[in-house]
Structures are given as C-alpha cells and as structure tokens.
Amino acid sequence: MREYVELRLTDNETFGFIGVSHRRDTTFMNASYPCMGVIYTVTDRVSGEVDRHFADVIFSNDYKTAICVKESDFDPVEYAEQKVREQLMENIHAAMNER
After folding, report:
1. DSSP 8-state code for residue 62
2. CA–CA separation, 31 vs 35, rounded Å?
3. What contacts 71, CB < 8 A, 6 or more positions away?
4. N or C terminus of the chain: which is more exposed, having fewer CB within 10 Å?
C-alpha cells in the first residue's frame, strides 16, 4: 500500500499508515484475493496539514502488492467518533430526564 500511495505523493508529502478497518475475500479477474479497508494519512511537511484517507484495497495473496485501490469518501474513524458522540449525548439527556 505504501508503494501505491508514495508514487502519487509530491516531494513535500509523506505517507503514514494508521490501520485496517475490515478484511474479506473478493474475486478480482476470476481469482480470489484478500481485500481490506486501509486507513492512512498524507502529511504536507511544509504546512503540517494532515489528510486522513480510506481506501478499499485488493492485495496479492502474500499482501505485498496492492492490486487494486479504490479511494473512498467514507472515513470509518470519523464515523465511529460521530456515533460515540451521539451515544454520549443520548446518555446525558436520559440521565438528566431521570432527575
């Protein structure tokens, strides 16, 4: 995955791996391959700006090569943060209504 992203970076940018969000098998070109959601960052060394990315990635069976990468607008980290915030607010409101 690093090699795929680094080919597209400018001289000012760096790649940072965060983690994976899920794993499944998928069929690609009539063969079965592992597929994972990969979360990573691209950091601008000049401005310090960090952009988080999520991509659905089909890997070779040894996981050494990203065969197909599809960038997504969906951010599982942001989604989880939002769900936790919503649940906290719901719990706070429920506790206040019990008084």
Report:
1. T
2. 12
3. 53, 54, 55
4. C
What tokens does 83 get?
A: 């769900």
According to DSSP, the residues that pair with 13 across neighbouring strands are: 44
User: 55-98 pLDDT, tens per residue?
Assistant: 999 999 998 889 999 988 877 778 889 999 999 999 999 888 88
Burial of 62 (0-12, 13-18, 19+ CB in 10 A): exposed
Residue pair 37/52 in contact by the 8 Å Cβ criterion: no
What secondary structure letter does DSSP report for 71?
Answer: E
Handedness of CA 24, 66, 68, 4 (dihedral sign): positive
Contact 35, 58 (CB under 8 A): yes
